[in-house]
Hints:
The protein is mainly α. Among the domains are: 1-97, no CATH class; 360-444, Tetratricopeptide repeat domain (Serine Threonine Protein Phosphatase 5, Tetratricopeptide repeat, Alpha Horseshoe), CATH 1.25.40. It is 74% helix and 0% strand. Helix 7 (134-146) runs antiparallel to helix 8. It is globular and about 95 Å long.
Amino acid sequence: MRFVSYTLLLLASSLLIIACDPGPAGLALPSQPRLDLLDAPVRAQFEQAYSRAQKEMQTGSPADIAVAIGELGMLYHAYAYPEPALQAYQSARELQDNESRWHYLFGMVAIDLGMSGAAESAMHAAYRLAPESGVIALRLGQIFLDRGLLQTARDWFAIALKDDRQSGQALAGLAAVDLENGDPEAALARLSRARELMPNEISILHAMGNVYRARGQRKEALRFFEEARSSAMLPQKRFTDDPYMQGILLMQRGHKRFDQLAASALGQGKTDEAIAHYRSALDAQPSALDVRHNLALLLWRRDRKEAARTEFEHIFSLSPAYAPSHMFLAFELGMTGELAAAEEHIMLALEADPYNLDAQLLLADFLDFSERSAEALLAYEKAIRLDPDLEKAWIGATYSLIRLNRHADADRMISNGLMRLPASEQLAVLHEQMRELSNHDSND
């Protein structure tokens, strides 16, 4: 990936936004994004698709224009330019409203942009045109699940499962409804079946890990999280089970090469070169949150904090609940005394993943650091429930009780910790200290 230096020469050589003549009923193409920093094959894709759409707008039938503009929208979609993709899909919908895929793809981008009402309307239109499509039913189920309309979500996931009895995604959707309804056992049963059908699906493995972690079965949870991590390293399938999205995947030309170059440069201590490669990856795939997060961290460590903040703001504009960035900023802002902002980021990370043990422990440490001992105690106790083998949580809870002058409770806390972790040297030392404190209290 490359670091972008916007020199006058580069600006002068960049491709201009193409303004085309309006088509039928005042229809106009979306503006082209910058292309000069993209890979040559990607530039060629955009140029060819745009030229084809321009030509069809001058001489083609409404159906031909719809296909050309819709496929241009698919290219925007593939490279994460959501606004022009939405505009292109809307034009295609207007010109060819009997074509299910334009409604569906419009709905997919609307979901990404947080336009829930528009997404629902578009998906309903797509389903009316293709009532046999379990994929559309899946998307409708997810829309209603995100809104908290659990029965409606369940109905749509059930339709998707009826369409395809082997749909791991439909089972995972029903499992999510079970979890929201407070039935982890039913959720686990569905997820186990989903895993049989889709053994390397990261989202299913991660969901199973969360269920086991919520049940306090830490070892099982860690096993599934490790499987999810290992699965992420496998070669990714070229096609999905979603026929509407297969065309999108075909248009992608991966940004991974630049990501790998950045990692190699960092391994050699060439941070400026790594930043440049990260920039190039984001030119090719602006929505790659992990890449943007790594770039932001690197900029922050190089004391280019304003540039790093810009990248973090971009991350949150794409995914407001992106936990890794929230946790990093919480720690860094806390260290510099920006406590209110640090706490906000911790809570956003936990809102995104209530069972995130690292975020829970970070919250507890933050509250302890802020001398809010009663709140810190509750946070440490929750961390213990999430992971009873977490030594630091037992120690933190004990110190919180000491600061609250609840010495007898502190003694019981550390004793319970030692019963759970009898080999812990730190807990043993603290236990001796508690005995001395208890003796001192008795003498007084």
